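User: My advisor, Dr. K., asked me to get a structural model of this assembly before our group meeting. I'm new to this, so sorry if the format is off. These are the inputs:
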Amino acid sequence: MVTVNNLHKKFNQNQVLKGVKLSIEEGKTTAILGPNGSGKTTLVKIILGMVLPNQGDVIFNNENIKNSWSYRKEIDYLPQIANFPANIKVQELINMIKDLRNKPARDKELIEYFNLGNYLNESLGNLSGGYKQKVNLLLTFMFDSPFIILDEPTSGLDPISLIRLKEFIKQEQAKGKTIIVTSHVMNFVEEVASHVIFILDGKVYFDGSLNSLKEQNKNVDLEHAIANILKENNV
Amino acid sequence: MFKILKYSFYDLARSRWSYVYFLFYLLLSSVLLFLNNDLSKAIITLMNVVLILVPLIGTIFGVMYYYNSQEFTTLLLAQPIKRSNVFLGQYLGVACSLSISLILGLGIPFMLYGLLQSTAIFNFLILLVVATFLTFIFSALAYNIALSNQNKIKGFGYAILLWLFMAVIYDGIVLISLVLLQEYPLEGLSLTAMLVNPIDLARTLIILKLDISALLGYTGAVFKSFFGTSQGFFMSFLLLFVWVILPIIRIFVVSRKKDF
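Assistant: The format is fine. Below is the predicted structure of the whole assembly, which you can bring to the meeting.
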């Protein structure tokens, strides 16, 4: 569904991506992992067209995304840090995004699912971090697009919301959606993802199934397998 | 783009500052009318205030709005919307809402005073048109500065400097150069100098329309022969238009290459 070729990105002096090459298979959930600052978010933002690569290209559904914007109709994106305009209300923001995308939305259902009913008339500036993340999730999942990108979806969520999120992701997987997720919570990754791409030092270090990563590092759980890779590479 | 414009406009229409700006102009023009007791004189006094204040407010609002809506901008950029439409929509939202505050704030008291029955109506219209141009020009310039500066403090600093240069320092430089070069024929130089700076261009346009060009002395005669003709008049509006278009083009170009 998405193919990334020889992607390079430099921010000032900092070379973040040094020739990333990968492909995301349709209908699978792929976790993009890597230490802090390894360029996970940058990679995701390049796929979305928010950051422009210095070199290389992204092919989305057989189409180069360069100078194109309409392919984003197929994508639901959850940004890492939910920064919303502070002076507008939750309901207004939902209506605004619905109006902008002009697509049928399942907002009512999700408001109930994430328990946001009592907060609809609250200004976004007054919400706690966890509730902001819930609004963020709601805005992301509202449109039922075939391709979902989740950047650190678990941040700030309490255990109940986390369980609900995982259930929700399972439902979406059952519908055959393609999902990319980045996270530092390995338990979460183990539960939702089937495929892992590990980025280290601006390059793809590992690209394969979750089980083969564990086998390769002779570890039972993902957390230790990842820690092992990092130690071996002196990160 | 129009949806973005609509939301930016609503957002600003709800903000306190649009009302403060509107009320300020309402008060200013009412007081001037009350003190001068004459439409034409009030227009002249108003001109002096408007030419300094409109660029200042346009600059500050442009920069402020850009930095304030950064979060919203990143949210929008992940949506299926063309990049340039996001920025153009926001810019037009700012410029339009400022222009409406200005036009209503100045217009209402003058209308009540009996502008429609007066001969000064065309002069007043010119003042409004020129002030609207200045709003569009300076908020576009400010938007450019904000787009190119990630650091808010720097962005504000440059924006204020730009205003200071255009509104104050530029005139000083022109004046000094006229004094230094007084042995040479200066009509061409001073005319060009007036045309290049939008604030000076606006001022000259209004002064000549108000028929007080005698105030300008000898150069006034040169200006009169240039601006007084419909050709010169047309030319100055064309230049104001260019001043709006150029920064907008740069907004397009810069926003296409920027990372968010």
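One thing worth pointing out at the meeting: Chain B has one domain: 2-257.

User: Perfect, thanks a lot.
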